[in-house]
Amino acid sequence: MALRRDRDTFDHQGDSILWPTLSHDEPVALVNNQGLRLSGRVDTLTQDRSCLWIRLDSGMGRLLIHHQDGYVLEHRDRGNRAK
User: How many Å apart are CA 21 and CA 61, to the nearest integer?
Assistant: First the structure.
């Protein structure tokens, strides 16, 4: 399965691949290599950008995603980014 990925999806810091800077309440969609897709809004991003809390759509709660959990940022709605 080919996945569309934003050019600035990840930042490289040493050997680590980190989440990009994301704003609170920014809509995002994450996908892993098995095709499992998570969509929702950013709740918070840890200061070191290694972990992302996402509030899942449809009232499915919050989920903590580490940058090494196998998910990539599939979609980033730049038009609705918080300033």
Answer: 22
Q: What CA–CA distances, in Å, run from 3 to 9, 14, 29, 37, 78?
A: 12, 25, 12, 11, 18
The pTM of this model reads 0.70
Domains identified in the chain, total number: 1
Residues 34-68 have pLDDT tens digits of 999 999 999 999 999 999 999 999 999 999 999 99
Q: In the chain, what are the helix, strand and coil shares in percent, each to the nearest 5?
A: 5, 45, 45
- The residue range of the domain holding 63 is 19-77
Average pLDDT over residues 18-37: 92
